[in-house]
Amino acid sequence: MRVALFVFDLATVALTFLAAYLWFNASQSRHRRISRGETLDAADLNRIIVNINRSQIANERAALATGAAGAALAARLLVDLLIG
To answer: Which of 19, 25, 54, 55 could share a disulfide with 66, CB 3.0–4.6 Å?
Structure first.
């Protein structure tokens, strides 16, 4: 029982640090601004789309880690509630 609570606590802490790291990395990507007078060609559009897709993937990973940390905490609380 005590080992299970320790494992859930350790998993929660590790997943929380992972989520914080992934959110930090996701926030580091900057999008290039486009001025009104600028003409876009295919290379510019490709670069913009790739940047948006990478940002979405980084945010998805961070959200998944945050959800896993929440699930680990919920499992720990459930074990503590049921077993006491």
So the answer is: 19
Identity (one letter) of the amino acid at 5? Answer: L
Q: CA-based angle 66:68:74, to the nearest 5?
A: 105
Q: Is the pLDDT of residue 35 over 80?
A: no
5 pLDDT above the threshold of 80: yes
Average pLDDT, the chain: 86
Asked if 26 contacts 51 with a C-beta cutoff of 8 angstroms, the reply is no
| Residues whose CB is less than 8 angstroms from the CB of residue 73 and which lie 6 or more positions away in sequence, other chains included | 8, 12
Q: Looking at residue 67, what is its pLDDT?
A: 92
User: Residue 9 in contact with residue 75, Cβ under 8 Å?
Assistant: no
Per-residue burial over 31-41, b = 16 or more CB atoms within 10 Å of its CB, e = otherwise:
eeeeeeeeeee
